[in-house]
Give the backbone structure.
Amino acid sequence: MKRSIYEVHRYLKTKGFTYGTALQLIDGVLPVIIGIKTSYLVDCVLLDREFIQSFLDFLGHPNVQAVHFLEPIEQTFFVNVSCWKEYAETKELWPLVITLPQKYRSEKLEQKLTLYVNTLLNLDRNEKMITIQVPAFTWKFDHSPVQSKVKEVCSITALTGCLLNYGATYHFCSNDESHDNGLSKEPLNIYRMIAAFKKCNFRLSPFLQFSCPVKFEQQVAVIAEQLRCNFQKRWEQLTLQEKSLWNEWLSFRYPKHALGRFEDISWEMHVETHTESSVVL
């Protein structure tokens, strides 16, 4: 990246970002820039397309693109193209797909979802920002031996979970008229990928977080471990320039903490079980 962290923060402030919102955006984008995370869904502010384009031009990073969804809801992702290609080619990292509200595993959708998202993004295009109206994606599969094959429409929740490289994602059946997603009062495992500084017992905010019903924990555990190993591998492959950028951000973000050397970080997948009275995705 051509810009220092201080320059990026100043740039965001000139665009009207508050101090805290600017920190949140850099927290999300930086791991994508240096190639630890595949993608980041902007959740701290609504970005318009003009700003997204200008921000990418300012960063000047050739490997980072923005994906701006217009339909069915407006949202922006920053994507590391190299990381996405690696992910799309590694089936062991593809997410488990849980169909709601019935809560059963859709293995046929799992085989199609990542390939579909890869086609939808078409990141080989030489464009800094890709604007997408998510089309109706249909595929056919059997609900039971008795029923005939039916068409199913992929939900934006499933697409988002895949694009963010979750170990599990949810798909809402288009032919189900219920407004209940079926997860309320359902025991859920919450998975969090965390960078831990071993010598000073300090942990950064989760780099990845997703949930899945407890009854699928054995299947998800395999994917979660693959994700952890992938984070560790990417971390060890960072260049000196990327490490320098990371250390610059840590010094700026946590000036009062002596976090130790770059090599002291280990990647951990933490799992906690929660049961909520109401779950909104």
